[in-house]
Amino acid sequence: MITSDRSSSTRNGRFGSFAAFAACVGLSSYLDATFTLRISYGKVKGWTERGQEVPIATTLGGTFDRATGNAPFDVAPGFAANRAKIDGATTYDFVTTNDIIGGNSGSPVIDRAGTVIGAAFDGNIHSLGGNYGYDATLNRTVVVSTDSVQEALEKIYPAPALVAELRGR
DSSP secondary structure string, 45-66? Predict the structure, then answer.
């Protein structure tokens, strides 16, 4: 999955219609990402829900803003114990216009420079119909940021050997 400042591809968008693509490669249905390679272009972008702008990102610090101490808004003990060490401004999750469906979870999200900036793991409520259509104004991919994973591996659940490996040392 590639995220850039380009507009997202759609089934009938800038890469041509799915019907034309399918005819060329002999497909009878839209690629589902489970047993087929899919590349999706998109950009980091929020959406409007019931007249309110939905922000493009959440932060690690925001986790504590919503914590009530009761499920489902309780904070994991390791996370809570390390609150003072955590950079609250670190991007936790962000949303993109990438067209995803079941099978895309774990797909790397790469910026235009080729840097992995996250992993797709979910879609917003509007993406549930992704097997049947894509609405560029509403459908969003939810991505966990590599910055938050790095922060967790360094300060919440220390894993220095893994951090060193990820840094190429």
Answer: --EEETTEEEPSEEEHHHHHHH
